[in-house]
Amino acid sequence: MTPPVVETIDFFYLSMPRIEDIGDGSQDMLLVRVRAGDHTGWGECEAAPLPTIAGLVCPMSHSACKPVAASVLGQRLDGPADIARISRDVRANSLDLLQAAHVLSGIEIALWDLLGRRLEVPVHTLLGYPRAYPKTAYASALFGDTPAETEAKAAKVRADGFRAAKFGWGPYGRGDVAADAEQVRAARAGLGPDRHLLVDAGTVWGEDVEAAAARLPALEEYDVTWLEEPFETGALRAYAELARRCRGVRLAGGEGAHHPHLAQHLVDYGGIGFVQIDTGRIGGIGPAREVAAYAVEAGVRFVNHTFTSPLALSASLQPYAGLADHVLCEFPVEASALARAATTTPIVPDADGQVHLPDGPGLGLDIDPDGLRPYLRDVEIIVDGTTLYRTPDLRS
């Protein structure tokens, strides 16, 4: 049988009617559809939709700055090795196209979904895992504008059965040390003493170690498991210095990594205890699986990063599905109506707060075109009278 080739790549820009200036990445979405032969796969980029669409179709600038589509269309897709080969081609041919990693991520995820559907197995099976272990969902939410609001959010998380919760962004790190301590105290008060509490600083301190270190006493006092992204991804010296000052709390980071090397550097030189990878940024599922294997060897815990749709959540779980000792899983609890509308079925924690991977082929989820249609943006890119991109038909 002749192996199928990638025939079409469709990008869909979806958005909430109103975008708020808050740390909520679920307010818009770049959905990816890939077709090869009689089979279709779906993926999602964790990126601003418009520049990412441009990265798919932009005219060639030079030999190392080609549109991503040029390295994917017409390629054979018969097994995991083909996905790895396509990814290498994209990184080489679009080396100077800095949006390429985001473009590649959604396409690569869709290729895994397509291959799994074609072979009628889940993606994690294609990755070599004999079984998928459930993960302990941590409710991922923004800090409230006030400590009282944060405490109420934490109390709801506990009532909803979550065994862990993460609060981040919002006012944290933008005021004084006492105000931040009060936010952490409120989160612990609402969550109770027997749940994991995680804090996400959202790179608010840039590379200011002293500002971050001033928050450590409160994090230690209220038994916080990790402080996430105190600094920008590449600030390795700052990470390492802060890690040396930590006692009980560990550092977490890596969601901004757009190549496995960047995540590995955080492990080797940044002193992090948890490496968080977003399949929609790092180049897809294969590179995330590479980081997961590296984390095992380094004695660091791998954690997914996702704050958008169930499709992105499923993709983010595949790279460490078979790692029994890597148990925490980011689970968005404040995702937008758009994110909730993306698939026909949600992923929900069970009564014990555990998330189970979908057991269907590919990513195990089906896209809901009717649910998404109200959010579809009409986009056209024209250069010298030639249409490079026009919003495709979501239902066709």
TrEMBL record:
Name of protein: L-alanine-DL-glutamate epimerase
Membrane spanning residue stretches: none
Superkingdom as given in the UniProt entry: Bacteria
SMART domains per record: MR_MLE
Pfam family name, one: MR_MLE_C
Lineage, broadest ranks: Bacteria, Bacillati, Actinomycetota, Actinomycetes, Propionibacteriales
Record-linked CDD domains: MR_like
Domain Mandelate racemase/muconate lactonizing enzyme C-terminal, chain residue ranges per copy: 147-249
Gene3D superfamilies assigned to the protein according to its UniProt record, in alphabetical order: Enolase-like C-terminal domain, Enolase-like, N-terminal domain
SUPFAM superfamilies recorded: Enolase C-terminal domain-like (SSF51604), Enolase N-terminal domain-like (SSF54826)
InterPro entries registered for this protein in UniProt: DgoD-like, Enolase-like_C_sf, Enolase-like_N, Enolase_C-like, Mandelate_racemase_C, Mandelate_racemase_N_dom
